[in-house]
Amino acid sequence: MTHRALWRRLFGRRARVGWLHLVVGGALLMPFYLLAMVVVGPLAGDGSPFASVTTQLLSFAATLPLIAAFGMLAPARPLSVAAIRSLGLLVDVRANGGPAAVRPRGDGLAEGPARTRAARLRASGWFTLHLALGGIISGATLALTPFAGLLLVLPFVPALRDSPYGVPELAGRQWLLALMPGVGILSMLALAAVSAACAELLARSAPVLLGPTPADRVAAAERRAADLAVRNRLARELHDSVGHALSAVTLQAGAARRVLDSGRASDVEFVREALTAIEETTRRTVGELDAVLGVLRRGEDEAAGIAGPSLETLDDLLARSGVQVALSGDGDLAKVPDQVSREAYRIVQEGLSNALRHAGAAPVTLRLSVLDEELEIVMENPLPPEAPAVRPGGGRGLRGVAERSILLGGRTEAGPHHGKWRVVARLPLTGGRLPAARGPGDENAHREDHRDGNGR
């Protein structure tokens, strides 16, 4: 090891940050130490604990169980992790000997309080180690720093040798006096070496003792899954509402343009109705878009509170869909639970969007049947005379319909049926039952059921 590398190890940024972290540990140790002295001092028969080194050592030993007990509390782990991250104790030294680089946020440390017994034991071990080493280094720093300073100037200030802080026995021994500055320097180097070693021990043990336990990893995976579910739901809401609106607006605008191109004055009323429908559709869609984006701005935790449209507002959707819809049904839609009703609305909306996109203004038949245990949705529209152009990457509409059904424990079917395109969705009225496990073959068949060659 070169002199420069040794100097960096003892006095570089990593060493300085490590020493500061240890001093913080020594400061946190003091309340426990003072509490232990109050008990140990009278038991040891020493009225003044600071006058006896033995009493101080006993008090320090009695402090460790108190620290370990405090470390078992849940907040001890986030307190330790916050101290490490704020001071930047964890650094990665590059293999090529380059400068140290502060670790990013993903430093292998656990997030949040320790919940399990194993996590608390590990956090308590690191907290005790931090405060114990911090107390030793802090005490050594307070004692050795003025002592080393005294040794450095002792040969040059005779008055210090006769003072209460001096060493009168050295008065006639000049060779010993000449060695005192070297002893002072060596003592500070020894303190720096011990401090760097303690800081390195803390840095290496932190990911082991403060890292996530298996329970923490499971909890993190559940949070990521919940976050992904929220994102998927918001994506479906945006796709269904905006996609349907754009399809309807495109169809109505195209029809109005063709009427204007024909030059027939008698069709002005049709153009007015088309423009009115475009205005109302875009206004309604902007409201839905603002609601979803508002959830993103406020936080994903509020996504569960999105009410959204339901079957109660289905008549308005059909009236402004841009196609002629023949609605029929069996049973009382009022019996459909709110969650199922909202998803059913989105499924119908996506079906209408597909019909507009692929079949133009062809009429659509819609049947809603409330059975004993499920809601059945059947939508049919004529197949287009020519296969529409495939969109890059395929469509996501039927995939979203399938996802909505699966989340409720239902199932969907989509494909040509007697010369028409047919979409069937069956949603359990209980809502929220998980689907049965699928084998590899079933999963492939599921994908084929909900995506055709036209990119629907």
Automatic annotation (TrEMBL):
Residue span of region Disordered: 432-456
Catalyses which reaction(s): ATP + protein L-histidine = ADP + protein N-phospho-L-histidine
Domain of life of the native organism: Bacteria
Listed GO CC annotations: membrane
Cleaved signal peptide residues: none
UniProt xrefs under PANTHER family: NITRATE/NITRITE SENSOR PROTEIN NARX-RELATED, NITRATE_NITRITE SENSOR PROTEIN NARQ
Protein's name according to its UniProt entry: histidine kinase
Organism: Streptomyces candidus
